[in-house]
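Re: Re: ligand-bound prediction request (bumping)

Still looking for help on this. To restate: I need the protein modeled with guanine bound, output as structure tokens. Inputs repeated here so nobody has to scroll up.
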Amino acid sequence: MQLLDGKALAKKMEENISLESKAFKQKTGRIPGLAVILVGHDPASQAYVGMKKKACDRAGFYSVSHEMPEDISQEAIINTIEMMNHNPNIDGILIQLPLPSHIDTTKILEVVSPSKDVDGFHPYNVGRLATGLHGFVPCTPLGVMELLSEYNIDPKGKNCCIVGASNIVGKPMAALLLNANATVEICHIFTDDLKKHTLAADIVLVGAGVVNLIKEDMIREGTIVVDIGINKTSDGRLVGDVDFDAVAPKTSYITPVPGGVGPMTITMLLSNTLKAAQNHAKELV
Ligand code: GUN
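Reply:
Sorry for the wait, this slipped through. Here it is.
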């Protein structure tokens, strides 16, 4: 069993991004900029936004966060996004999800300019990914692809079982793996006999948000397991969706939590923001 060390890869990639950010500054006289919109006081969302801001600082990016009260109107959020769409110092706009229930999330995501959609959540970019065209790809599944590639794991022809069908993780993960010529299935909360599917897979990728969902008897010897879950236990520990201690010895490769997919997500956000800045600079030539 070998660990897929996302922390190490994220660090290596961040160093390259910092260098590219410096080169971008020399060439254009400006630095890549990210705007984050955070609505409400969810502690997990606040922690994520804090981590994203710190990563921007490390990479030499400009970042600004717009923190809004829980009861803010949809119009006020839309106005802020439109301001960011027109702000030449901002290359990427990220709406931290989830949004409060009185806000129409789809509508909000559709207001973000597709060229600044560094989360890859706008239907324009979702459609481009689904058709195998270049565009912005959601950071977590993109980070998983980078991590697999770092360890020379080629999904081509492999049976990939994704557990969790979210728009943020499961669905874009499926599109990326399909574009990489894998055989892909997505299991979800209504899947009958999950174990039957995970046992048939060469690569199991889990992002369901359920502690210990994947147990030892659900994984074949030699399977590659990617744990995209992030859960906090009652005693404050961070754990994924896989019963790591029992499952890990059976796998050929497995991601730890923390230190696996999580750090890659932040790094891919930097990578997407740099790409957006480079695209915007090209448009100005
Ligand atoms: N909430 C949970 N994951 C994510 C993510 O990747 N991006 C955003 N914007 N919000 C999230």
